[in-house]
Amino acid sequence: MTLHHFILTIHLLAATVWVGGHLLLSIGYLPKALKKKDPKIILNFEKKFEALGMSSLALLIVTGIWMAYDFGVTIETWFDFSGGFETVISTKLVLLFCTFVCAICAQLYFIPNLDKYNIKIMAFIILTVTLIGVAMLVLGSTLRYGGI
């Protein structure tokens, strides 16, 4: 097994945890929380998932940058959008930034004050991060064929 393949495997495992956890939250827990207007359902999931989820996100960032360099997409060509690989990696970086914005908003403003009155805003953030994760997964899968 080459080093690149090992890094890809770690990246895919981390993506499984990150995207899978958000899909579980969005499909399995969020509808119940919204129906009952019970923020504890979201908070309990978040408490259990946060350490594993954040570790997975950190691994995704490190392995993603590593593989970008393996593909010849260095920091100088980020946001260049000049070729298939550059377009995918640049788009994923933009989506990563959007994920950070959502995470900061959630951690600083909504999770500490989550109640039945602002649970819909938190639901919007959860669904946004989930859709971003799925989009990043799909984008990553295009690299096998040269990107988009």
Walkthrough of the structure:
- This protein is mainly α and 148 residues long.
- Helices cover 78% and strands 0% of the residues.
- It has helices at 3-36, 39-70, 84-110, 119-141.
- Helix 1 (3-36) packs antiparallel against helix 4.
- The longest helix is centred in the first third of the chain and has 34 residues, at 3-36.
- The radius of gyration is 17 Å and the shape is elongated.
- 22% of the residues are buried.
- The model has no long low-confidence stretch (mean pLDDT 95).
Compact overview of the structure:
By secondary structure, the protein is mainly alpha-helical. Helix content is 78%, strand content 0%.
* Radius of gyration, CA atoms, in whole angstroms: 17 Å
| Overall 3D shape | elongated
- The total count of helices amounts to 4
Mean pLDDT: 95
Taking pLDDT < 50 over at least 5 consecutive residues as the criterion, the unreliable ranges are none
Order of H and E elements: HHHH
* DSSP helix fraction: over 70%
Task: Give the percentage of residues in beta strands.
Answer: under 5%
User: SS-based structural class?
Assistant: mainly alpha
Largest sheet entry: none
Distance between the termini: 27 Å
Q: How many DSSP-defined strands? A: 0
